[in-house]
Write the structure tokens for this entry.
Amino acid sequence: MSIAVKGVSKRFGDFVALDHLSLEVPSGALLALLGPSGSGKTTLLRIIAGLEIADNGTVLYQDADVTDSRVRERNVGFVFQHYALFRHMNVFENIAFGLRIRHWPRARVKERVHELLTLIQLEGLERSLPSQLSGGQRQRVALARALAVEPKVLLLDEPFGALDAKVRQELRQWLRRLHEEIHVTSVFVTHDQEEAFEVADRVVIMNKGCVEQAGTPQEIFEQPANPFVMDFLGNVNVFHGRVHDGRAELGSLNVEYPEYTARESRAATAFVRSHELDIERVRNGRPALQANVVHINPARPVVKVRLHAVEFGISLNVDLGWERYDELKLQPGESVYVSPRRMRVFVQDYQVQGHQVPDYQI
Amino acid sequence: MADSTTLTRSLAAAHEDPPVVRAALITLALLVMGVLIVVPLVNVFYQAFAGGVGTYWKNLAADPDTRHSVYLTLIVAPLAVAANVIFGVAAAWAIARFRFPGRTLLTAFIDLPFAVSPVVVGLFLVLIFGLQGILGPWLRAHDIKVIFALPGLVIATAFVTFPVVARELIPVMEAIGAEEEIAAVSLGAGSWQMFRRVTLPNIKWGLLYGIILCNARAMGEFGAVAVVSGRISGQTDTMPLRVEKLFQEYNMPGAFAVASVLASLAVVTLLVKTALEWKTRSDLAAAAREAAGERA
């Protein structure tokens, strides 16, 4: 069952939560709505579910217009951040709730609930109350409850947001495997880009009620559409400078920029990911910045080096491979040269996607 | 753990008043309670049973007007409570679950019956439903009697006790939140199914507490009922009115016998209320713990 959202807007008083937003979720996809808080991702999810009414625009399930149908007519599974389990019912009754509403016969309810208990690996806990379960167990029960009625789409609102890091990690992988098993079209909201990239097969990046970019995790990571996406994905160093005549000048960093050949100089922002920076002891002809090593965090799998770029007055973060780190034997306070292997330049009002700086051979 | 207990103790000690002040305050509180509550309560039972159990029973059961007042109270109070359960749940629902224009006003209005003297409430009702009242001609044309009749008693009692149920439910519903209800709807439940299967089980202790308290207030209501009833013996006298009438007639044993029934009701209410309060508090604490656990 595919989902299509067309030109949906939603305001809360003066606040524009969604601004003529359109989106497609292919059938069987596991899609992540990723964005900072206030970007409208939860509102969009609630509109897809029918828990919120859009001011205008339409929502389609496959070819059926469901814009005006209410949540209980849409047959969706909804999973809440805080689980929203029925506190006075045990695990069995929680999962059976939707089936009882649909007047399933007793024997089939029992069969279906046990099927789901096996799926969420909580056999034997059916008589427990939600208050007796851990956070991760509760969220799995909530998921089973949503899946019990065989929903056409599964919608999850920050499903791992209330869990601690380790449980979150386990549940993510479990959700991924679960989706491979049951293939129900799923949309989940998250503000954690790592989570979105790890779990989803499609990611939609939202900002201020609009879609900034939609695509597979790889597409988004390799070809960020604009500075917002680049910045939001994080682990990135930002340089401000100007472009003209096919070159970008970022302080003493002067690189080729064939996409912009006009004489007129324009402001530009360059993004370099932490792992795309190299550290050298001596200048070797490649464009490089002088910087002082401030801090070394030898975390695995990469060594995180923080430097101070004297000229820009900014901090640089460099992820160094262990082999390179052992070779360099960096010490805090040392003066070194930092050179980008690859950078993406965005010119204001003239955005070019993912510019590749030619690899400078040593 | 031991450290924090010691710390709490030393902090408490730092905030404590000198023993003399404490003893004085406690004595004062006990004295006031003894004089104003315990002594009168014991006295009611002492006076009622002064002539022995036989006389007590005769005072209660032999007088047809007294019998009728008990019967009338047993009709009026449950009807008023039933009306207030419906109003109270609806009002608490509206206030706890929705943000709408006039919400603050509604919240204020719920408390109005507590703020206005019951006698004034009675007069309001006479002005509306009385023969010379706004609805008087229409009611007379349709041969409906409200004032000096059962409907008036029920309306007056319900009005005066209106805030009790809503006041109990609003904090409970706010603490529990709407998420479980939304979850129920997303699973296909209709409004009534959602209310019966999810909301009601969650608020049942608070609701029961509200009902008990409301019932006690309804059975004891005097002022508003006195105005609208016309105080016709054997017809519109409820128990509190009957107590007063017997007292005015210098029938002390009779007055105290009926009063003792009302007083017993108060004692039972107090016991049930304490038990339910304890239950509601532990439920609320559990809800708060759960919410805190989720946030952590």
